[in-house]
Every structure is written in structure tokens, then in C-alpha cells.
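Q: Can someone sanity-check these two? First one:
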Amino acid sequence: MAEEKKNLYNKFNIVKNLAYFKDKQEKNNYFQKLPEHVIENDIFSFLDSKELFFQVRCVSTEWCNVMKNLWCNKIKEEMIDQVKTIDLIYEKEVLTKTYEFKLEYLFNYRNLLTLYNSNTNVVNLIRTQVAEAIENTEFSKLMNLFFDFLGFYEAQELLLNNEINELNVFLGTDELPNHYTKVFQEMLNVEKFHDKNEPQLIHFREIFNTINKYEIEFISEPARLIYALLQGLVEFEILKHDIRNLNIKKKELIHKIQKTTNEWPRKKKFFERAYKLLLYSK
């Protein structure tokens, strides 16, 4: 975007100075000080076919000839850009299919997480395993990440401060199951995103992957289930971002294709009329 703005700014200055050049009394016009090959190859190359035709051609006979040298190549470039629209259409089709496939995968993933959660008392599993296995370093790392990801910051703080008795009391409160259910349902909403942004989620996954999975599985079946649930939730959130990015790219491509398609008839008519004028006029 910055490069595009820079090019537009340069084009604006070129066109502005072309207008100044028409006034022979303009003393500060830099075109008068530049060699012709620089003007032709390094300045006018920024202009498109319409700007060359309407701004450059009418300045002088010499510049009209320069414009004719450049104009055919400019038309070819713009026609090639039109042909490239076919590639954009193919790219859009590929993006659309990828988007639809991942969207279907997202809903299947959500159904799997819903089924998993409805058949497992997760809060009770956590309470039991914290009481039995929190001294295990790998399980302690897992629970720290679990509390962090689900926003159980009070439990996370108690764990980090090694206040295990207080943590067990907190996990036994009557409000916690309802709070967990609310948080879990919000995460399963495909239109809502985690408080962590996409780079933070990817970094979180990297930290999660440092946990020794085999040691977690060796602890107990409940520990393995907690590990699998957190892994699934993290991947589900990252998949949401992936699908949103695909949708944005797809919409941008559609807009670009529509813009090019709408502009082409007008460009074609301009090419035909301008070419006849150049061909039959002195």
C-alpha cells in the first residue's frame, strides 16, 4: 500500500509539471533541465496510456512523438493486465474451494469438541488431577496453559504461587462449572475470536508443544483428556483466523476482478478511438 501511494504521488507530480510545462513562462519547470532519454524512459514510464495521450501528446510535437513511442507498449501492458484477470479468476476458485473446505472442517471440529465436552465432566477431571498430579512438572505446565487459555486467571495465579490447597478450594466452588460452560460455549462460536490475536495464538501453540505429551499420557487417562481438549481448543481458534483470512483474500480478489472487468470496455473504446486519431491525424 505504501509503494502504491508513492507511485500515485510520483504520477501526480509528473502530471502537474506537464501542465506547468505548457506555460512557456514557467521558469522553475524541471523538465527543461532533463535529457530527453531520462524524460522518456524514467519519467513518462510512470504514466498510463490515458495520461500519455491527454497530458503528454498535446505539449509539443517532440513530446507527441515520444508519446507515440511509449503508447503502444503501454497498451500492451494494460492488455496483458486484462489477460491476467483469468489467473485471478482461477486463484479465486482455488481460494473459494479452500475456504469452503476449511469452513466445513471448522464446523466438524466444533461438533467434535461439543460432543467431547458433553460427555466429559472437565471441571471434575481438573479438580481430581490437580489434587493427584500437580507435583508433576509437565502436568503443572499443562494446567498453567489451560487456566491461561480459558481465562481462569485466579486459578493460574494460585498455581504459579504454589498455593495448591487454595487452588483445590477454588476448583471446588459451585460457580466454576457454570463459568467454564459459559467460556467454552463462547469459544465454540465461530464468529467470536479469542482474546489472544493470531500471532499470540501461534506462539501459545509453540509453548504448548513443548509439553512432553508422552509423560502426560503416562500420568493418567484424565490427564491425557485435558491435554487433548486444550490442544483442540487452540487449533480451533487458529482455524477461525485462517478461515477469516481466506475470506478476506477471496473478497479482495472478487473486487479486483470486478473492477478490471468493469473498466475494460471503457479502456477498449478509448484505445480504438485514440489509435484512429493518432493514425489519421498529423
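And here is the second, same format, sequence then C-alpha cells:
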Amino acid sequence: MSDTFTAEQRAKLEDYLANHILPSGLGSEESACSIAAINLAINGELKDNIPPCMSSVLGRATIRLQDAMPDEMRNSDRYKTLLPNMAGTGRDNEPERLGFLMDWMWSTVLPQLQPLADEKGFGAEWSDMCRLKTDEAANAAAAAAADAKASASDYAYADAANAANAAANAADAADAYVAVYASAVYAVYASTSANADTFWNTVDPIGVLERMTYLKTGKQP
């Protein structure tokens, strides 16, 4: 498969996005996920393999985030306009793209759990994790959340502990897929809460995908 995303393939993808709904999960030819839609435009195959013309870091992040974000966000004009630009990003700037993703995980997503951590008794450890951004601090936050869970039956404790564990693994392995998982773990919790809309607007997953695509600190002009 070529590492070039051609103008013809881009036109096919734009036409597909204009006339189809992007689902959570792989989907079908009539309603394919983000990566599968790109592959359909390239070679007509319904697969979620990241094509060679696309950043692997960005592709792995996209798989996780498109599944986690609300349906209306995944099918927004903003996201569907971004997707064709994501397809041709190539793999020359992977460390920079991973840096944007890791910073988003530490500085934007995980701090959303701070009020819960404060309420449940592991606020200091959670704050240290978000400030220090290390696997050691994340392990400490995960242990504190797990200890708090031992004395209460609340799924929020498990979500917090799982997110911190995933953050520790992401920091240790510098793995984009794990980094997004750390964020998505909490996203699942937040999406079932009364504050789901506020959470998604605050963390702005499309925004981090834009930064990873255009390699800028803000949105494309």
C-alpha cells in the first residue's frame, strides 16, 4: 500500500463522510469508523488497520477517541473536515505527535478527576500525578485510589485507579494507544455522569487530534 494519500482518495473520503454516519467500533461499509472510512477510500477494504500514509500515533489515538466521544461529536462538521487531513499525515513527526497526546492526557483529561479524588480521599496523590507527569506518581495515585475503594463500593474508585494505572503504563512505555486509554477510561465514567457534556467540551478530543495533525499548539487557521 502506498504511503501517499492521493487527491482522488481524498475526494472519495470526503464524499463518504458527507453521506455516511461514523459509528463507534468498526461498523460496516454503510457506516464505517474513522480509520475504516479512510481505508475504504484508499482500497475499498473495511479494515481498521492504520494505512502507511497516516501517522501511526495519530491513527492509534483516533481509534480510541472516536469510539469514546459522543456520536454527535464524532459526526460533527469539525471532525469530518479534519479526518481527510489526518489521513495523509505520514510518519515523520511521531515523537511530536505523541508529545501533544501525552500532554493532553496529563494536563487536560486526568485533572478532570481531581474533584472526585479530593472527595474520596486521594486528592493529594492525584494532584501530584498531574503535576509531576511520571509513571511513579501515577502508580502512587492508582494505589491511593485502590486503597480508597477498599472501604467503599463505588465504580468511580475503580475508574480512577484504572485511569492512573494506564497513565503510568503510558508514561513508562511512551505508547499512544495506552495514553488514550488512560483518558478513555475516565471518559466512560464521565459519559455516564450528569456532567458528561461539560466533560467532553472541556477535554475537547477533536482539539488534540487537530494539534496532532497540524503540529500546532492551536487549531488550524
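A (reply): Looked at the second one. The CA atoms of residues 128 and 137 lie 6 Å apart. The longest strand covers residues 27-28.
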